[in-house]
Please model this.
Amino acid sequence: MKLLTYAVDVVANLAPWLAPLPTAWLVADRTTLHLGWPLAVGWIAGATLELLGVAIMATALDLWSYQRDKRKSDPDAPLILAWALVGLYLVAALLLVVMLDLLDGLTTWAQAVFPILSVAAFAVVGLRYDHRRRVDAIDQDKAERKAKRAEQRAKKTEQKASATEPEFATKADHVRHLLEAEPDISRLALMSKTGASASYVSELVTEHRTNGTKGE
Model:
């Protein structure tokens, strides 16, 4: 079953790249036959049309996926322009592949398709660049919001800690309080929590132990 799934995945990834080849050949054949272009130029025309078609369709699907999953606060994608370019590609392909065989008077219009496709190509480049900027801005905004939330959580935690920690008039009172609460606390911990010097902590620890011994 896994082998079958892998094989289908390979076919699914390969087929979209093979599908434009027949159309590219048809465009090359029709432009050579009806427009009198050299075969090499016809192949360039066919390859250009199909590569542009792949770019247009991929861009339209990217924008559609973004528009479907975006947050309400995120900017809209120019889907209308993207699908208009898809329609332009389909019209151009049908004109060059089918209509030239049906209507001889379309040769002039067929040649006009290619300047229009040049404009469409630059439109695709602009759409992709604009979408990349849009996604980068959203990612940056998410990162800033995440950092802000982390900062707010840290502040709340610090406020809670300071609210539960009693205030002491002197460092000595703080050290004595900790010694009463945690008899086994280390001197290093006392220094860290109170900011008292090592000699001062040692003196207070000795005092605490002496008083405890007297009490017993």
